[in-house]
Design a protein that fits this description.
Layout lengths: L2 E6 L4 E8 L2 E9 L5 H16 L6 E7 L5 H18 L3 E4 L1 H6 L8 E9 L2 E8 L4 E9 L12 E5 L2 H4 L8 E3 L8 H13 L25
Parallel strand pairs: 1-4, 4-5, 6-9, 9-10
Antiparallel strand pairs: 1-2, 2-3, 6-7, 7-8
Helix pairs in contact: 1-2
Amino acid sequence: MNYILNIETTTKNCSVSIAKEGKTLVCNEIAEEGYSHAERLHVFIEESIAAAGITYRDLVAIAVSQGPGSYTGLRIGVSAAKGLCFALGIPLIAVDTLQALAAQASVASGLIVPMLDARRMEVYSAVFTADLESKRAILAEVITEDSFQEFDETLYFVGDCAEKCKEVLTQSNFVFLENIKYPSANQMSALSYQKYLKENFVDVAYFEPYYLKDFMITTSKK
């Protein structure tokens, strides 16, 4: 059986799942105002493996959410995933964080826009079809009333940016699914299994998270 451990720590949600053939068996997660990933992650991993009735040796791969997201959260998740891969001698799978977030939206048509808060009116965003195919690459951008004007389809916005963005993004084809805030290891299960079947692995030694931080750097006006 192909059991995969999925780790998601890019936001306030510390999330772990055990999946069998792409189906989630167990998911442990908690979203707190203060990041508790360092304290919670390894506990969740142990509890999830026990609840699934397997051992570490039953795992065929470790999947980690690759970002963008919190710098500290990414480092914690990736470090844990790498350590397990080295110890168990199994491959590492990197899953697109925004695609995993978009996967929580079940829509028949239109486009899904996952957005994660950066600061002020800045967000990390991407655009996916209802089938989770990439429609527009990941961007770090400042949201204005002109954002996403190039799309005529219904846009379903998900993520933790609704409160600050819905006052600006007011087009009639813009819909905010405010109950979907954070990416979860639950939706990583199917995505990581697809990559496992294709042997789409990353180098355990050299893999780095996708920080996407450059846009925050400003130059002096002097």
